[in-house]
Write the structure tokens for this entry.
Amino acid sequence: MKRWEKVCREASVADVMFLVDSSRGPEKSRNVRDFLSTLVSGLDLGKDKIRVGLIQYSDMPSTEFSLNTYQRKEDVLRHIQALTFKHGGTQTGRALWFMLENHFLEIAGSRIQQGVPQIAVLITDGPTQDDIKEPVEAVKKAGVLLYAIGLQGAVFSELREVASNPDDKFIFEAADVSFLGDLSQNVLLALCTTIVEANPQGSQVSPDLARYPLCHPAASRMGEGKTWRGEWNTVQSGWNVV
């Protein structure tokens, strides 16, 4: 069994929104669809388990599906594989506002009032064309944990501004969209660890999972040949270099 599989077996409850920058159009769509499918396939979806939603954005954000649209994993995967990207500008700030105002709500399937962990995963490949400071602060103030996944063309300073702390837990980079597949298992490992640690029942990663080698997410830029080994520290909730 792979490391991420062990952790994801313990990741029982969360609301996860994927926010996908589609501004570059169809040339990256297959890789991003496959990446999203890998992440969703690794999660234990269900009405009382992990719920997922998806927004794509360019000049304007649009809902693909909400947290309460699908209960079966196969339905989510079918929608993702049929996803068609809408190219345009990169209005990340507007998309963040849209996500907060339309999706992290009880009517849209969010269980935020029940104390269920709220997580957003931003995937972007370019500099934003609008302000992100205010919406990022609002999303974080609402209690949402933010992951930032940067593809070729993304601005690292913007990824840092978006992502929750610490950077080395919530930021991932791929030098090219074709390397997303290589990144998927590390993202799943970090995402499931966050779900376990944020679980309202106070669940912790089991002791035998507290140490495992993997590529450091922020320092390892997939495709550039720069990787180093690390271990997850469940006490300090961060990565240690080994």
Remarks:
- The chain has one domain: 3-206.
- The CA atoms of residues 220 and 227 lie 5 Å apart.
- The longest strand covers residues 14-21.
- The radius of gyration is 16 Å.
